[in-house]
Design goal:
- The complex is a heterodimer.
- By secondary structure, chain A is mostly helical.
- Chain A is built from 13 helices and two strands; from the N terminus they run H-E-E-H-H-H-H-H-H-H-H-H-H-H-H.
- In chain A, helix 1 runs antiparallel to helix 13, helix 8 packs across helix 10 and helix 9 runs antiparallel to helix 10.
- The longest helix of chain A is centred in the N-terminal third of the chain and has 34 residues.
- Chain A is flat and about 75 Å long.
- Chain B is α+β, with helices and mostly antiparallel strands.
- In chain B, the strands form four sheets. Chain B has a six-stranded mixed β-sheet with strand order 6-7-8-3-9-10, with helices on both faces. In chain B, strands 13-17-14-15-16 form a five-stranded antiparallel β-sheet, with no helix packed on it. A four-stranded antiparallel β-sheet of chain B has the order 2-1-4-5, with helices on one face.
- Classes of the chains: A mainly alpha, B alpha+beta.
């Protein structure tokens, strides 16, 4: 087959997948973008083109800016904590000899739980009057979900509790991909355990770390369920993330245009985060053999 | 560049992994500046032996002495040994230069000295043009030299080489083997060279230690190993084509609880009609260029002979076999141990 024929066949084979993607991803995206340029409140029968007015409104909307800050803070702290906790966990799992399979399964339990169930579990544990925390610490328990800063950190805590095992598993896969001989060689070369970790393990784990950061920060930035179940965005709107605000604007307030604008901003943030990690992942790859 | 060698002594080394013994009481002494080849089939414990000497694993029992000092409880870095891994174990995220510099960097050698020593080793091994490449951009032979260079750069007292040539293609292997031998002669360091390739062991080693199922079968010079193998296993392990190990009646000798071994170069095959000797039939003829390997069948057994290059015969052709009975070696069939001849012939 000629090169051109082959290319044409390739294009034909990719076409169905491309069409499906266009239908389910690109279509809704463009529709959302179009909607965000309109003032549309179906219950009031209002629907007109307003240009960038919705975005202009968001720029001065304290609740939106708060949600953006909450989301960014939630993402940064949750992902950082997950990575910091997952790395030693992955190392321990990697070096655990016997019973590794069992331990690995046990570690995964929080991640297997549906987020709503996990969040509800913690909501009950942290419940100010009857929760476990209230029994252990009667004076402080009431504050956890009612004070804004504490409530956001409670949500971060639940997310970290739930997702650290997933990150650990990603890192474990990365560790297992590093040939054992490299660490052995480094030890014979005179490196201490710490030096082996710093000079050999960590640099070679970089792709796995970046991959974990990519997955997790995209996920965390779109956080909805943990917060929705744990605090419902409260007290007030102090723990509300972007997706919860978008949801409420769209479906509760029925303001489709504004809700679409929030969604689109969220989407653009996620794309930016994704591209940043991907470009970090792409650089400094060991050169392939010529 | 030269390194003072030291004596390496192993005393009754034993090691098991999960209840499976890998080494059972191995004692071996390597003189300073000597190259000892540890040979044996896969799984015989060769690599375990190197791990124990390097300090990557602790022995269950036994003593390791380097330069008279017991090093059992010392970490790899305190033992002053260098190792070349079968996989080369080059650090893929570092350039050749940083790979070579790593052991010195770890040891806290001043930067200027590191640079000088890396240049020296690179010049010695012809790596100078490759210093800024990553391992992925090197050929197999180049990687092998970087691995060797990383061991050399420290000027250690003992070099451990774990099948260093086994990942090279056949053409390259002979060249590198010769380079290694010259390198050892020049350095004067103590080498422990693990291989499953008897030809490497024969050509490189001052002494060969044959390991089988975690125990030493024999330690000796290449000539001793080849000419006076202590067991049938050793006899079979060295030599190409392999030794003929058969029941004595195959060679027209009285039956007994022994097997006899005859090297292929000691078996004569004659096609002349009416020649004296044992009757046999040709089974396979393999021209090797400078000589021809002839496999013959006799009494249900196959024997290989190294014949002159011009030898040719169709399969099934009748031949006569001859040999000098003094070249025969006898091994107890039960134990495989060599029967020391008490009478000539």
């Amino acid at each position: 087959m000629s090169a051109r024929g082959e290319r044409r066949l390739g294009a034909a084979l990719v076409a169905p997948a491309g069409a499906a993607l266009a239908l389910v991803a690109l279509g809704p995206l463009l529709a959302t973008a179009w909607l965000s340029l309109r003032h549309r409140v179906p219950v009031l029968g209002e629907d007109r083109f307003v240009g960038l007015a919705n975005y202009g409104a968001l720029a001065h909307d304290a609740r939106f800016l708060g949600a953006l800050a909450n989301t960014a803070y939630f993402t940064a702290l949750a992902v950082a904590l997950e990575l910091v906790l997952a790395l030693p966990l992955a190392l321990a799992l990697h070096h655990a000899g016997r019973g590794r399979g069992g331990i690995r399964a046990a570690v995964l339990v929080p991640w297997i739980l549906p987020t709503v169930v996990a969040a509800k579990l913690w909501a009950l544990l942290l419940q100010p009057d009857l929760g476990l925390l209230a029994r252990i610490w009667p004076d402080g328990a009431g504050a956890v979900l009612t004070r804004p800063r504490l409530a956001l950190h409670a949500a971060i805590f639940v997310d970290v509790w739930k997702t650290t095992p997933f990150v650990a598993l990603l890192l474990l896969a990365g560790l297992q991909a590093i040939p054992e001989d490299l660490a052995r060689a480094a030890r014979v070369d005179g490196a201490s355990a710490l030096r082996v970790f710093r000079s050999i393990t960590l640099p070679l784990l970089r792709p796995a770390i970046l991959l974990a950061l990519l997955f997790r920060s995209l996920d965390a930035f779109r956080v909805f369920d943990v917060v929705f179940v744990l605090t419902e965005g409260g007290p007030g709107h102090t723990t509300e993330p972007l997706s919860l605000y978008a949801y409420r604007t769209l479906l509760r307030a029925g303001s489709f245009g504004l809700g679409a604008a929030i969604s689109l901003v969220t989407f653009l943030c996620v794309v930016a985060i994704g591209l940043a990690w991907l470009s970090a992942l792409g650089e400094r790859r060991p050169a392939e053999a010529p | 560049m030269s390194v003072a060698g030291v004596r390496l002594e192993l005393e009754s080394l034993a090691k098991s992994y999960g209840g499976v013994p890998a080494l059972r009481g191995v004692s071996l002494s390597v003189g300073d500046g000597k190259l000892v080849a540890v040979v044996g089939p896969s799984g015989c414990g060769k690599s375990t032996l190197l791990s124990l000497v390097a300090g990557l694993d602790a022995p269950d029992a036994g003593v390791i002495r380097i330069d008279g000092r017991v090093v059992n409880d010392l970490s790899p870095r305190e033992r002053d040994v260098a190792m070349v891994f079968q996989s080369y174990a080059l650090y893929p995220h570092m350039t050749v230069r940083r790979n070579l510099a790593f052991p010195l960097d770890v040891a806290g050698v001043p930067r200027r000295e590191i640079a000088a020593r890396v240049e020296e080793v690179a010049a010695l091994l012809g790596l100078a043009p490759l210093l800024d490449r990553r391992p992925a951009a090197l050929s197999g032979g180049q990687r092998q030299r970087v691995a060797l260079g990383r061991a050399l750069v420290r000027r250690p007292k003992v070099f451990l080489l774990d099948e260093p040539l086994s990942n090279l293609d056949a053409a390259l292997r002979l060249g590198v083997r010769a380079e290694l031998k010259k390198l050892h002669e020049r350095l004067g360091a103590t080498f422990v060279y693990v291989t499953h390739d008897q030809a490497e062991a024969m050509t490189l080693a001052d002494r060969i230690a044959v390991l089988r199922d975690g125990a030493l079968e024999q330690v000796g010079t290449p000539r001793e190993i080849y000419g006076a193998p202590a067991t049938a296993f050793v006899a079979r392990f060295v030599g190409t084509p392999p030794v003929n190990l058969v029941a004595p009646e195959v060679l027209g000798l009285p039956e007994g609880p022994i097997d006899v071994a005859l090297r292929p170069e000691d078996l004569r095959v004659s096609r002349e009609a009416g020649a004296a000797g044992l009757a046999a039939r040709v089974w396979l003829v393999e021209p090797m260029g400078s000589e021809t390997w002839v496999t013959v069948e006799r009494a249900g057994a196959r024997l290989v002979a190294r014949c002159e290059a011009a030898f040719d015969a169709p399969p099934g052709a009748p031949v006569r076999l001859g040999f000098d009975p003094r070249r025969l070696q006898r091994f107890e069939r039960e134990t495989g141990r060599r029967v020391v001849p008490d009478r000539p012939g």
